[in-house]
Amino acid sequence: MRIRCGRTLNRFIRTMQTLFSHPEASIAEASKNAAEAKAIYRLLQNPQLTEENVLESYRTETLRQMKQTEESVFLCVQDTTEIKYGNREKTPGLGAYNRKQTKGLLAHSALVLTPSGLPLGLLHQKIWARDLALKAERKVSRPYEQKESYKWTEAAKASVLGLPADMKLIHIGDREADFFEFLYHLHVDEQSYVVRSMQNRITEAEGLFMQDEVRKQPSSGQITVSLPRDTRSSEAARDTTLEIRFLTDMVHVPAHLKQKGAAYSPLPCTLIHALETTPLEGETPIEWFLLTNLTVATVDDAREKVAWYVQRWKIERFHYILKSGCEIEKLQERDGDRLRKLILFYSIIAVQLQQMTYLVRQKPDAPCTSFMGDEEWKVLYRVANKTKTLPSKPPTLRESVIALAKLGGFLGRKSDGDPGAKVLWRGLQAFRTILDNYLYLL
Predict the structure, then answer these.
(1) Does residue 387 carry a pLDDT above 70?
(2) Does a structural domain hold residue 372?
(3) Alpha-carbon span 347 to 58, nearest angstrom
(4) Could you tell me if 256 and 142 lie in one domain?
(5) Looking at the structure, do residues 371 and 297 belong to the same domain, yes or no?
(6) For 49-108, what is each residue's pLDDT tens digit?
(7) Which residue range forms the structural domain that includes residue 393?
(8) Domain-embedded: residue 64
(9) What is the average per-residue pLDDT within 22-26?
């Protein structure tokens, strides 16, 4: 079954608005009345509304947005996040994903971006409960398809389903993605990647270590990149310069795979070395080793791949919005299956919020109708400007986003910059209530 994305998303948002108003409460406590609570339970328990068909419909919408950009190359960034639910021993369907037996779920997502970094949607998401007993088994005793790490290949294969022939995905991953099986399957499937290297891989012919060898290469040039704010070290966002070197060779099949008798063969790839020349005082310079199976013949080719990798942090921002903005770890649902469905719903909303925050920076003067319906922007304009008189044309995207953010507590001072996803989420909640009341009074 395929659901109509626009109508279904609106229904999801209305349901999420009710739940998020009181994240610490149960569905019954958060609902206005018994009828609303019953409707939400019915939505979550509806066997026809599965994670698979919700994601399928959302993929259709994401592909539509990709086509609308008129781009031909897109970045598909993968990453996993832990969703912690504490010590909920009586909640079925949760796993213990660490040695402390903390109950929770894991979500592995494939977020698609334009090359400039605008989030467009999710092409795949897998949410599961980790079985520690299975994870404790010796990894070499299980085929790759049965390992948890297969999530990377699974997401890559799912991401290209239905992709038009004139579109190309570049899979982007951090060091967790640097394992031979994943890179090999991408190569065999004729998919492209830029992955930060963790392994100092050995060349096939000479038996040399690639990271050591690329350091010996002459500098090819430099690139200036914008680094996001580091929340862990409280470092502000900044621009920095990286010096680039690169080396192309055949990568040796790891010994443990040869011992298993797996049918792997050496991989052609390029290793790009990017070293910071303008580090912060007292800090270790940034140093990246990026593996790619794309052609790197010139320094401009190398710069392009480094610039693509810099966009990887957008998926970390997506996880931040999901946890801190939508507060999914505060959900009080006491069933793992329904929690997974709720997490998917919130993931769709989180991407929309993230897209809105970046789109307003890239295209502030675009009409707000790209995000809002005719009735919605008119109600928002009346409320924001305290008037009954409408303008001759819709407000800009920036004007409407600022109006929404102010409903969520944004002050809009010159020093405040652009509103973030969290204040926009609160503003959307407030606006949804206003819109509901407006429609009720009609």
Answers:
(1) yes
(2) yes
(3) 11
(4) yes
(5) no
(6) 678 888 888 898 899 999 999 999 999 999 999 999 987 778 888 987 666 667 899 999
(7) 363-441
(8) no
(9) 47
Give the CATH number for residue 367. 1.10.740.10
SS3 for the chain is CCCCHHHHHHHHHHHHHHHHHCCCCCHHHHCCCHHHHHHHHHHHHCCCCCHHHHHHHHHHHHHHHHHHHCCCEEEEEEEEEEEECCCCCCCCCCEECCCCCCEEEEEEEEEEECCCCCEEEEEEEEEECCCHHHHHCCHHHCCHHHCHHHHHHHHHHHHCCCCCCCCEEEEEECHHHCCHHHHHHHHHCCCEEEEECCCCCEECCCCCEHHHHHHCCCCCEEEEEEECCECCCCECCEEEEEEEEEEEEEECCCHHHHHCCCCCCCEEEEEEEEEECCCCCCCCCCEEEEEECCCCCCHHHHHHHHHHHHCCHHHHHHHHHHHHHCCHHHCCCCCHHHHHHHHHHHHHHHHHHHHHHHHHHHCCCCEHHHCCCHHHHHHHHHHHHCCCCCCCCCCEHHHHHHHHHHHCCCCCCHHHCCCCHHHHHHHHHHHHHHHHHHHHHC
Cβ pair 303, 223 in contact under 8 A: yes
pLDDT tens per residue, range 247-275: 999 999 998 888 776 789 999 999 999 99
CATH of the domain at 254: 3.90.350.10
Contacts of residue 53, defined as CB under 8 A and 6 or more positions apart, other chains included, come to 1, 2, 3
266 with 396, same domain: the answer is no
| Domain identity same for 431 and 324 | no
Q: Determine the pLDDT at residue 413.
A: 81
Q: Do 428 and 388 lie in a common domain?
A: yes
* Same domain, yes or no: 251 and 125: yes
User: What's the CA gap between 195 and 305, in Å, rounded?
Assistant: 10
CA-CA distance, 238 to 60, in Å (whole number)? 36
Q: Is residue 212 part of a domain?
A: yes
Same domain, 115 and 248: yes
- Give strand pairing partners of 108: 80, 126
Do both 331 and 368 map to the same domain? no
Number of domains in the chain: 2
Q: Which of 301, 318, 336 is the last residue of a domain?
A: 336
